[in-house]
Amino acid sequence: MPITDYLQRNADLYPHETALVEVNPEVRARRGVTWRDYELVETNPTKKYRRELTWDQFEDHANRFAHLLLNAGIKRGDKVAILLMNCLEWLPIYFGILKAGAIVVPLNYRYTAEEIKYCLDLAEVNALVFGPEFVGRMEQIAGIIPQVNHLWFVGEDCPPFAESYNQSVKHFAAEDPGIQLTDNDLAAIYFSSGTTGFPKAILHRHQSLMTAAITEVHHHHQKHEDCFLLIPPLYHTGAKMHWFGSLATGSRAVILRGVRPDWILRTVSEERCTIVWLLVPWAQDILDAIESGEIDLRDYNLDQWRLMHIGAQPVPPSLIKRWLDIFPEHEYDTSYGLSEAIGPGCVHLGIGNTDKVGAIGLPGYGWKAEVRKEDGSLVTPGSKEVGELCVQGKGLMVCYYNNPKATKEVLRDGWLYTGDMAEVDADGFIWLVDRKKDVIVMGGENLYPVQIENYIRTNDAVKDVAVIGVPDSRVGEIPCAVIEVKPDRVLTEEEMRAFCMGLPRYKRPRKYVFEKVPRNPTGKIEKPLLRKQLGGDRLVEREAEK
């Protein structure tokens, strides 16, 4: 069935139960409001620190937006993009797009104006919903995206080049629009990483979204009584697909707009969250704050918190050992995934397998996973042989949209070749050892080295440059720029840091090395050699077995 059926079912079964809560501690901190002085509103998300929707309201908002889209001429198969920070409106807008029979296109909120335009063009987007944080970027491109017929603005003070979502949507009916959908209908385009510059557009059917929901429930034993704390950005498959477990069980979820350790623990305590998905840096910050005395766990009520799980990057075993020393009652899991396989879950560690932390785990529920050598044969478990991780399941993408060449390279005979190199231990657990792709994963976000390299090359003192990821205990990897300076020039680290201020903050190299950039006889940069020289070839911390 299509994923929208879950929403309609929840509205029928649990109409007055809370579906979503948005907590914005930054607003509370600015205004000096006490934590318990909650206020329920449905207006501007930037002005209140706690809002909520029932399942009935969630369904109503989605239906109203679906009718707005249909009235605006959006047809089955048209594409509607979302460019919003996490907020209470995000998921109802997502489901409104699906209910109209359209294809939803979430956009990374870190994209520059140029990247936004590139993705809108590549996905052939017909309409866009955006928030106040993106007015400046949208002003730059509003006049050069002619295929985008409608721009809806979520919030107050709508810019003149857009239409007000808040004012428009309330005039439409709250009844289901009656668009018949099936598992085979196209549902979403997500953008993922690539080593040649801009990301690829990944097309999925409703079947993929349903697969994610079912897999999540089986992996984490979710029940209607659970409450999921959602912190990562909703444009990413990771956060969304983990939340699909809440959708499938009709359980409550809390969207937290902030990652400070005290905000996370206070939200878990006050909202009675039972499941929390963290990235490595956030888990590490929480532990550091507890161990330093900055946070006193006696100030929080955390007895209901049963599961902490991590995804999006390799997990240091030492981190989980520290976590379980402080939270010995917690269950723990790690999810491996990629947007081509609808996010997390095609491989996962599995609750109870803490002795295997560092591995990505076993094939997920409803998935197959194999590690294949170059000749197509399988690596032998326990042999230390390395091969490419391949996965198969109902959550695989249809294709890279408008890119048949790239699709053919990774989809072969119903299997997705992930580009991740791995080995299989004697118990069948899969361990990542390297990546074919050069994408740098920093704090769960993908960075494209070519874009950074192209920028650095505009410095007239630079002869050659290579950007690689090197290990970092907090965010997994950081970008390191290896710079070969022209013979007659001098370039310092301070000068390069100042020069790279022209890049978006998250793309700026965190480390600089000045030396010759090695290239092979065909002219390709030897990045594996650089990673080995600079200590970047160990992507997963492997502790010795005791």
Write up what this structure looks like.
- With 546 residues, the protein is an alpha/beta fold.
- The protein has three domains: 4-258, 3-Layer(aba) Sandwich (Rossmann fold), CATH 3.40.50.12780; 308-435, Luciferase, domain 3 (Roll), CATH 2.30.38; 441-534, ANL, C-terminal domain (GMP Synthetase, Chain A, domain 3, 2-Layer Sandwich).
- The chain has 16 helices and 27 strands.
- The strands form six sheets. Strands 2-1-11-10-12-13-14-15-16 form a nine-stranded mixed beta sheet, sandwiched between helices. A five-stranded parallel beta sheet has the order 4-3-5-6-7.
Short summary:
The protein is built from 16 helices and 27 strands.
